[in-house]
Automatic annotation (TrEMBL), chain A:
PANTHER family: LACTATE UTILIZATION PROTEIN B (PTHR47153:SF2). InterPro entries: 4Fe4S_Fe-S-bd (IPR017896), 4Fe4S_Fe_S_CS (IPR017900), FTHF_cligase-like_sf (IPR024185), Helical_ferredxn (IPR009051), LUD_dom (IPR003741), LutB/LldF (IPR004452), NagB/RpiA_transferase-like (IPR037171). Keywords: 4Fe-4S, Electron transport, Iron, Iron-sulfur, Metal-binding, Repeat, Transport. SUPFAM superfamilies: alpha-helical ferredoxin, NagB/RpiA/CoA transferase-like. GO terms for biological process: lactate metabolic process. The lineage of its organism: Bacteria, Bacillati, Bacillota, Bacilli, Bacillales. Residues 302-333 form the 4Fe-4S ferredoxin-type domain. This is Iron-sulfur cluster-binding protein. One of its GO terms (molecular function) is metal ion binding.
Automatic annotation (TrEMBL), chain B:
Pfam families: CCG (PF02754). One of its GO terms (molecular function) is oxidoreductase activity. Residues 4-83, 132-216 form the Cysteine-rich domain. It comes from Brevibacillus invocatus. The lineage of its organism: Bacteria, Bacillati, Bacillota, Bacilli, Bacillales. This is (Fe-S)-binding protein. Transmembrane segments: none annotated. GO terms for cellular component: cytosol. It comes from the Bacteria. InterPro entries: Cys_rich_dom (IPR004017).
Length: 502, 248
C-alpha cells in the first residue's frame, strides 16, 4: 500500500472533527444510504438467508482460490484476454506503463476502479507523461481536488454541492450553479471529448466469473460502458479475490451488492465483458489486458482470523453503518479504503506490524459493521485480533502496558480488587469537585474532556452484600413453584439441545 | 438450584444500586441469588485492547466463581456478551479452561434475557408514570442478540410512556478504553447521542448496560441536563416497590 500518511490517526481525526462541512456532508449521505439499505433489506423476503448464502459462496471461493483463479485465467486467455499478474502496487504500475508504451498511448480514461487508487496508477501514468482522466463523477471531483477517495463507492462523499460547484467552476473557467444536474451536465460534456481521444480505457472489476473468464462491472453512471467500448485498448485491474465460480453465484451477489450499497434493487448498468472485440461485435477494444493484483491480499490466505477479509465485495455498507465513520469521514483512516473495512484492511495488507498505526483503535467495537455486511465479515472481531497481534508482537505503548499489568495484578485476585476499591475511595476525595470528578489528568484526561465522572459510592456491592442477603432472606420465602419448574425445564431443554448439537 | 449473580466490576464498584435492584426483583419470585465473592472482572478492558494474557488472569476469577452454579445472571449485556462471544476464543489453547468456558456460556444470562426467555415473565406488575426513552447497548443487542427483551418488559409497565430514541442503534461512544484512547471521536458520539435523547423530551433514560449509561450520564452532567439515567432493573424495581434503591 501507499507509504503511510505522515500525520497520526489522532491528528487526522482532530482535523476531520473540526470540519463541520465534512461532518454534515458525510452524515447527510450515509444516512440516506443507510436508510435505503434498511428499506431494501426489509423488503427482501429472505434477507438473512441470502446473506448467509452469499457468505458461503465467498467462503467457498476463497478457500479454493487457486483452483478458481486458474479456471478463470484459462477461460479468459481462451477468450483472447492478455492476463498478467502483479504481486505489488509497483509491479501493477509497471505493467500498466509497459502496455501504454507498447500501444503508444497518450491518454487513459478510467471508470470504476478503486483498486487503481490503492495502486496509485494515476500518479504512475502521469509520471510517465500519460494523461489519466477519471470519468465517474465522484472520482473526477476528487481527481480535480487532488484528494484520495473518502468512501469506497462515493469517493467525494465529504464534499457538499457548493464545494463541488466551486471546484468545477474553476475547471470550466466560468461560474457554475451549485445544482447537481447542471454540474453533472458540465462534466458529461467535458468528458465526452476525453472519451473520444483516449487510447486506453481502464476499469476495475466487481466480480470475475471463473466458469466463463468474464469480468463484471456494476455501475450507475454508464461510464464503464464507454470506457470499455470506445478506446482501442482496455486494461482491467482486479484484486485477486474478486472471483465467483459461476454466473448463478453472481446472481446472489447482484441481489445483495446494490441493495447493501445504496438500497437499489438493481444496479443501473451491469456489464459482463468476456474479451476483446470479435469479428461479429459492433464495438469493443482491439486488445484487452487484465492485471490480477495481490498487493498484500495473499497474506490473508490461510490466516484463521483474517481470511474472511477476502470475502469483501466492497459495497460500503459497513462505512454507512459506522458511527465512527459518520463523524470522521474517510480521510482520517489514512488509506484508500476507509471505515471499518479500511481500518482492518490497512494493517492486514501490511505484514510489518511495526508500521501499523493506531487505526484499529478507532472503533468502539459496536458491531454495526458486521450487522450491515452482506457477507457477514466479523469486522468488530477482527479489530480486536489486530490489537492483539500488535500487543503479542511487542508493539505496545509503555503507558498502556503498565496500565494492563496493573489491571492484571488487581483483577486476578478478589482480595486485591477489594483493597484497590477501598484505596480508590480514599484517593478520590482529593479529586472531588461539586460531587463529581472533573480533573483531566492521566487516563481521566480524554474521558473527562467530555464527561463528569461520578465518584465511587460509600459501599461497593460486595461490601453491602451480607446485609442485603439477610434482608432478602428475612423478607421472602422459598422459591415460587412455577419459577422452579421453568428453571428446571429450561436447563433440561438446553441439555437436550446441546446433545442434539453434538 | 444455585442461581448466582455475576455483578460485573462496574456495577460492583460504581453502580451497586443496579445490581441490588436486580437482586430484590428476583427475590420477589423467591429466587435468592447467590454471590460468590471471588469474581472480579470479565476481562473485557484488557481483551478489547489486545492484552489477552491479562484478560485471562481476570477471566479465571469468573470461571472459578461460577463453576458450581446452575444459572449465572448479570446486569450487563456487554459482560455477558464477553462470556458468550469471546471466552471460547480467549481460552482456545487451554482445553481445561475451554471446557469450563463452554459450561459457563450455556448458563449465563443477561437480566432481561433471563426474565423473558427463561422465566417467561413480561409483566412485573410495575407502575412508573414517566416519559422514558431506551438506549439499546451494542454488545447486548448485537453480540448477545438481546433486542426485544428489554422492550417487552418496559411495554408492560403501567403509566410508562416509551418514546422511541432517534438513531437508537447507534453506539453511544463508550467502547471501554476507546473512550479514553480515542476520546475526541468518542466525545462526538456521546454528544450526538445526548442530542437525540434530548429530542425525545424524555425524563428518564433507561438501558441494560451501566458502561454506556455511565458514559451518557457523564455527558448529560457536563451539559447540565436533568435527565434521570437508570438501569432497567432499577426502573422496574422502583415501579414495583414505589421507591428507589437507597444507597449512598
Ligand atoms: S466489509 Fe462487508 S459491508 Fe464492508 S464493504 Fe466489504 S462487503 Fe461491504
Amino acid at each position: 500500500m501507499r507509504s503511510a500518511d505522515p500525520s497520526t490517526v489522532q491528528e487526522r481525526v482532530r482535523h476531520a472533527l473540526s470540519d463541520e462541512f465534512l461532518r454534515n456532508a458525510v452524515k447527510f449521505t450515509t444516512e440516506r444510504l443507510r436508510a435505503g439499505k434498511q428499506a431494501a433489506s426489509e423488503e427482501h423476503p429472505n434477507w438473512e438467508e441470502w446473506r448467509e448464502r452469499a457468505r458461503q459462496i465467498r467462503l467457498h471461493t476463497i478457500a479454493h482460490l487457486d483452483y478458481y483463479l486458474q479456471e478463470f485465467v484459462e477461460n479468459a486467455r481462451a477468450n483472447g484476454v492478455h492476463v498478467h499478474f502483479a504481486d505489488t502496487a509497483e509491479e501493477a504500475a509497471a505493467l500498466t506503463l509497459e502496455i501504454a508504451r507498447l500501444r503508444g498511448a497518450r491518454s487513459v480514461v478510467k471508470s470504476k476502479s478503486m483498486v487503481s487508487e490503492e495502486l496509485h496508477i494515476n500518479q504512475a501514468l502521469e509520471g510517465a507523461g500519460v494523461e489519466a482522466v477519471e470519468t465517474d463523477l465522484g472520482e473526477y471531483i476528487i481527481q480535480l481536488a487532488k484528494e484520495p477517495p473518502s468512501h469506497i463507492i462515493i469517493p467525494a462523499i465529504h464534499k457538499n454541492r457548493y464545494q463541488i460547484a466551486e471546484l468545477l467552476s474553476k475547471e470550466a473557467g466560468e461560474e457554475l450553479p451549485p445544482d447537481t444536474t447542471a454540474l453533472a451536465g458540465f462534466v458529461r460534456r467535458k468528458l465526452r471529448e476525453k472519451f473520444l481521444e483516449a487510447d486506453i480505457g481502464m476499469t476495475g472489476c466487481n466480480f470475475a466469473i471463473a466458469e466463463s473468464g468474464s469480468i463484471v462491472l456494476f455501475e450507475n453512471e454508464g461510464n464503464a460502458r464507454m470506457v470499455t467500448t470506445v478506446p482501442k485498448t482496455q486494461i482491467t485491474l482486479m484484486g485477486m479475490e474478486r472471483i465467483v465460480p459461476t454466473w448463478a453465484d453472481l446472481e446472489v451477489m447482484a441481489t445483495l451488492l446494490p441493495r447493501s450499497a445504496t438500497g437499489q434493487k438493481l444496479t443501473v448498468y451491469m456489464s459482463g465483458i468476456s474479451g476483446p472485440r470479435r469479428a461479429e461485435d459492433r464495438d469493443g477494444p482491439e486488445q484487452m489486458h487484465l492485471i490480477i493484483v495481490d498487493n498484500g491480499r495473499s497474506l490473508q490466505l490461510g490466516d484463521p482470523h483474517f481470511q474472511e477479509l477476502l470475502n469483501c465485495i466492497r459495497c460500503g455498507a459497513c462505512l454507512n453503518a459506522c458511527p465512527v465513520y459518520r463523524h470522521i469521514g474517510g480521510h482520517a483512516y489514512g488509506s484508500t479504503y476507509s471505515g471499518p473495512i479500511g481500518a482492518v484492511l490497512k494493517p492486514a495488507l501490511n505484514k510489518n506490524v511495526a508500521e501499523w498505526d493506531d487505526i484499529a483503535n478507532a472503533s468502539s467495537l459496536c458491531g454495526a459493521c458486521y450487522e450491515a455486511c452482506p457477507v457477514k465479515i466479523p469486522l468488530h472481531d477482527m479489530l480486536v485480533y489486530l490489537r492483539q497481534r500488535k500487543v503479542e508482537q511487542g508493539e505496545r505503548s509503555r503507558e498502556e502496558s503498565t496500565g494492563m499489568k496493573g489491571f492484571r495484578y488487581v483483577m486476578s485476585s478478589h482480595k486485591r480488587y477489594g483493597r484497590a476499591l477501598r484505596w480508590a475511595r480514599v484517593m478520590q476525595k482529593l479529586l472531588l469537585q461539586d460531587g463529581v470528578i472533573k480533573v483531566r489528568i492521566g487516563p481521566l484526561k480524554g474521558w473527562n474532556s467530555y464527561r463528569h465522572t461520578t465518584p465511587l459510592p460509600k459501599k461497593s456491592f460486595r461490601e453491602g452484600w451480607q446485609a442485603l442477603e439477610q434482608d432478602i432472606q428475612r423478607e421472602h420465602g422459598g422459591m415460587d413453584e412455577r419459577v422452579r419448574e421453568r428453571l428446571r425445564r429450561y436447563l433440561e431443554g438446553q441439555e437436550k439441545g446441546s446433545k442434539g448439537d453434538e | 438450584m444455585k442461581i448466582s449473580l455475576f455483578v460485573t466490576c462496574l456495577c460492583d464498584s460504581l453502580y451497586p444500586r443496579a445490581a441490588e435492584a436486580m437482586v430484590r426483583l428476583l427475590a420477589r419470585y423467591g429466587i435468592a441469588l447467590h454471590f460468590p465473592d471471588v469474581q472480579t472482572c470479565c476481562g473485557q478492558p484488557a481483551f478489547n485492547s489486545g492484552y489477552w494474557q491479562e484478560a485471562k488472569a481476570s477471566a479465571h476469577t469468573i470461571l472459578e466463581a461460577f463453576e458450581e452454579s446452575d444459572y449465572v445472571l448479570s446486569p450487563s449485556g456487554s459482560c455477558t456478551g464477553m462470556i458468550h462471544h469471546y471466552y471460547p476464543e480467549l481460552f482456545a489453547d487451554d482445553p481445561v479452561m475451554l471446557e469450563k468456558a463452554f459450561r459457563l456460556q450455556k448458563k449465563t444470562f443477561e437480566f432481561s434475557q433471563f426474565m423473558i426467555r427463561v422465566l417467561g415473565i413480561q409483566d412485573i406488575g410495575a407502575t412508573f408514570p414517566h416519559k422514558v426513552t431506551y438506549h439499546p447497548s451494542c454488545h447486548g443487542s448485537r453480540l448477545l442478540g438481546v433486542k426485544e427483551e428489554p422492550l417487552l418488559l418496559l411495554e408492560q409497565v403501567k403509566g410508562l410512556e416509551l418514546v422511541p430514541l432517534p438513531f437508537a442503534e447507534d453506539c453511544c461512544g463508550f467502547g471501554g478504553t476507546f473512550a479514553v484512547k480515542m476520546s475526541d471521536i468518542s466525545g462526538a458520539m456521546v454528544s450526538e447521542k445526548v442530542d437525540h435523547i434530548l429530542e425525545t423530551e424524555a425524563q428518564v433514560l433507561v438501558g441494560t448496560d451501566m458502561g454506556c449509561l455511565m458514559n451518557i450520564a457523564g455527558h448529560l452532567h457536563v451539559r447540565k441536563e436533568p435527565i434521570r439515567v437508570m438501569h432497567l432493573a432499577e426502573l422496574l424495581y422502583e415501579g414495583v416497590s414505589g421507591h428507589a434503591i437507597s444507597r449512598s
